[in-house]
Amino acid sequence: MTKRERVIRRAVATLETIDRETAKAVAADLRTLLPKRRPVPQHRKERAERKAAKGRHTAAVWLEVRERDGGRCVVCLALADDMHHLVYGSGLRTLAESRSTCACVCRFHHDRAHAGDLDTLIALVTWATPLGYGIACSALTRRIRKIEALRAPSGAKPLESAK
């Protein structure tokens, strides 16, 4: 209960001893006289609207991706639990979020993709290439080369496995 409500209830309780109708009238006057909650700043309203719009967009993309992939993992054909964003990076994922940059994956392969498992990432590239998803293929290939460079001994060139 807010301070405003407590003040109003106390005033009504005090005035009820006099006359119920008078108490209601005074309470109505008090409601107009007491300060109300501070209005929500415009920037907070706008941020909430943007966040809600982003959530609606992500939900729509998720439905399109599930429909396209039949609700199955694109790597192993198990029932898909998650939508994996094939494009990643600072702001890129949200910017490029579409049905061509996302894939249905099971929990196991989603975890493996985030862990940097080369077999899973290569399977995602081989899935995305025939569909013509160039942005996703280039992002996955870049990630595979980066992982290979990190795992290769110093001075060795990365493998050409993800071409």
Average pLDDT: 83
Oligomer: single chain
Uncertain parts: none
Largest sheet: 2 strands, antiparallel
Helix content: 55-70%
Beta-strand portion reads under 5%
Strand elements, count: 2
Task: List the topology elements.
Layout (H helix, E strand, L loop, with lengths): L2 H13 L4 H14 L8 H28 L12 E4 L6 H4 L6 E4 L1 H9 L2 H14 L2 H18 L12
Antiparallel strand pairs: 1-2
Question: Can you give a write-up of this model?
Answer:
The protein has 163 residues and is mostly helical. The chain folds into 2 domains: 3-33, no CATH class; 42-151, no CATH class. It is built from 7 helices and 2 strands; from the N terminus they run H-H-H-E-H-E-H-H-H. It has a two-stranded antiparallel ribbon with strand order 1-2. The model has no long low-confidence stretch (mean pLDDT 83).
Summarize the structure.
By secondary structure, the chain is mainly alpha-helical.
Supply the key terms:
elongated; mainly alpha; two-stranded antiparallel ribbon; 163 residues; 7 helices
